[in-house]
Specification:
By secondary structure, this protein is an alpha+beta fold. It has one domain (5-196). It contains seven helices and six strands, in the order H-E-E-E-H-H-H-E-E-H-H-E-H. The chain has helices at residues 5-16, 45-62, 75-78, 84-93, 113-116, 119-133, 152-163; strands at residues 20-22, 25-27, 42-43, 95-99, 102-106, 146-147. The longest helix is centred in the first third of the chain and has 18 residues, at 45-62.
């Protein structure tokens, strides 16, 4: 990538956090997508893309800046304790929860390519908000102050996702988490649609 000031700052922050750049995004030691936020709130490409995608689809229920609403929880708070697999499984398969005599329903988005193709990016944005809510850096409410340029690898993956979404391409090989049974993989369920569950 070119050495723009944003790229240099974000890459230095990623190096300091010992993150690996793989598949067009930064990942932690467990391979989970992870946000990179500089001290002046510049972010990596995936977190920027997640900010855009979250505010396109998720904020209607979960509120701006992932802080919740009267009928959907704060995802910034939820990701303080929720792991990546549980988050992924919840978005794919939905969730029903009873609280105080009210039934809350999170719809399943497993077949919505506008969500699934960008789910890792949405996760990194919400995780950045969650880290800020915990006082561990992250991103405060509002728009990031800048972003890293898209890498050639991320650009190629975006193009492939848009062109080849037939079966849940973006979900193949991903763990499903507790919604469908711990640590199952979509590869083993390739002939079953998400709506079959």
């Amino acid at each position: 990538m070119p050495a723009s000031p944003e790229n240099v700052e974000v890459q230095a922050a990623a190096k300091e956090a010992a993150l690996e750049f793989k598949d067009g995004r930064y990942r932690d030691k467990d391979g989970h997508p992870t946000p990179v936020v500089t001290k002046d709130y510049k972010v990596d490409w995936a977190t920027w893309q997640g900010f855009r995608r979250y505010h396109d689809a998720c904020h209607v229920c979960h509120g701006p800046n992932a802080l919740g609403s009267t009928f959907a929880p704060s995802l910034a708070d939820s990701l303080k304790t929720m792991d990546y697999e549980t988050f992924y499984g919840t978005v794919v398969g939905g969730r029903v929860r009873e609280a105080g005599g009210t039934t809350y329903v999170m719809p399943a988005f497993g077949e919505d390519k506008n969500i699934m193709c960008y789910l890792d990016d949405i996760y990194t944005y919400i995780k950045a908000r969650s880290l800020n809510a915990e006082g561990k850096g992250g991103m405060p409410p509002g728009r990031p102050n800048g972003r890293e340029d898209i890498s050639a690898e991320a650009k190629k993956r975006c193009r492939v996702r848009r062109l080849r979404y037939s079966k849940p391409l973006c979900m193949r090989g991903r763990p499903l988490g507790p919604v469908f049974g711990a640590k199952k993989s979509l590869k083993s369920l390739e002939n079953i649609t998400v709506s079959s569950f």
